[in-house]
User: What shape does this take?
Amino acid sequence: MAAPLFVGLDVGGTTMKAGVVDDEGQVYAAVNMPTEAHRGQEFGLNRMADTIVNAVVAARIDLDHIAAIGVATPGTMDLRAGVILDPPNLRPWQNVPVRKYIGDRFQKPTAFQNDANAAAMGEFWIGAGRGSHSMVLFTLGTGVGGGIVIGDLILEGEHSHGAELGHMKIEITNPRQCGCGRWGCLEAYASATAVVKRTLEHLEKESLSSLASYVSRPSELTARDIFNAADKGDAVADKIVEETAYYLAVGTTNMLHSIDPDMVVFGGGMTAAGTGFLRRIHNHVKHLAFPVPGEKCELRLAKLGSDAGCTGAAACGRLLHRQQRQN
Amino acid sequence: MAAPLFVGLDVGGTTMKAGVVDDEGQVYAAVNMPTEAHRGQEFGLNRMADTIVNAVVAARIDLDHIAAIGVATPGTMDLRAGVILDPPNLRPWQNVPVRKYIGDRFQKPTAFQNDANAAAMGEFWIGAGRGSHSMVLFTLGTGVGGGIVIGDLILEGEHSHGAELGHMKIEITNPRQCGCGRWGCLEAYASATAVVKRTLEHLEKESLSSLASYVSRPSELTARDIFNAADKGDAVADKIVEETAYYLAVGTTNMLHSIDPDMVVFGGGMTAAGTGFLRRIHNHVKHLAFPVPGEKCELRLAKLGSDAGCTGAAACGRLLHRQQRQN
Assistant: This one.
């Protein structure tokens, strides 16, 4: 019998990506299609199915060779029910029975997962976390997401809110407001959005910076500009980057003192900042955390880039396939 | 064959307690003996064995009826190795091979666990957490401890630092120093010690309080005095209790946004404050947390009191016994 193949589908606010992945985690073929959530959820479910079919066609295989499917989506969800509830990035979708639809359509075992959890599973399986027993992922983009994997199990939580690591509170005296409306969340300090906001605040007070001109055109400033300016020695940018590393070290320390994983991985657009940024985080962790986990837990950059979601979704399909074969 | 019995031993800085526990979690007989750590670790290991034997004698059974033993201890430890490393509460012990010693001495399967983790397992098994699938315990005493149980598994962590919940950071701008030497830890805000310290600080500024006289005899003030004064309407005490509930709500929210358990339990001496205090914590959680876990996660007071440790240690022995029978 040929080794089983899986399809992972990662649904994003703008595009969705499906990949055919083999039992070793190699992506055979991946295709992107626009999500076009505004066209409604019936359209969206069809688009998911089409994207899966297109990936299978691109891989030049027959659907019969696919052992299981995994779908990862953003937004609030009920993981046990397999339903997206009210996803902010997929308006106007509501209560979309993704798992049942895809399962019925393809008549395959279908796993359903939160996108950050799926990315964590992808990195754990064949990315930066390969070989670890437990791993925490922070995804640093517009927001801060998270995923926790312990011994092949994703920590989904009882109400699908496991590993919402961007929303751990790190400040009580003078908390910043988060995009979620609440206060003091890690995301309000360490997302790309927060990095830009904090820089602009700083530039109001301190104009001696290569970034000073952005005060009059704030919407053009990106986190990448700030990291680049820091690399070139700009003192304001350097201070912001260092503080961002500190905030992430606080979040990491809280994971070291609760999950105590053997690896913490940072993914998402902001990790383009590279190993220098990782080193800054690690230096702070060594001061903030207890000596043993502070020394022994490895910190790494994610490896799979934009493939993490569909590879991880495929990994979830693969685990489901294995469980069903065991039972 | 008779139902199996277990012995749980909970070693504390002052006393140790052993109980014979049946398969339903009922404690048949429990005995306390002084730990007397200053007499050295050889003495301590013998004292552990004696305490176990005394509990078995008190239960009027034969050692042959004991299927497994569990031992819980405080301090830094290597759970996989079964060794206490350098326990602050058990000076001058160092690198004490507890699991091997007790296992060899009694020739029984022997589990070894951190005391707060064991207490969590006890509450999960037959206490406040009974019937839950996952549970987080905060123990509120001189310090703040924690335990996380997910589906019968204790989250020990890879380096025995799982659930060190007193040392999650909740403040970055103006952090208090913790007894651990680090800054901004939950314990520095919400332990009984911290409650007393914060009250004394407040009384320096605001002397209109029934507690005012304690400023000249600070060592006599206890957390219980403060909770009692709050119950009687003292405004300073009420403010301190309310703030303490808020800090614990922040810690709880961070668990809801990472572990997402179906129950959070508060144990330890400070929970003598009762259900009014629990309600205060819950009110803050509802504002701080996402709506779904904030509404659905239950908050409860621990039920087992000072039996939590030895019952939980017995539960760990029981799980080991079951695992060994399955393999």
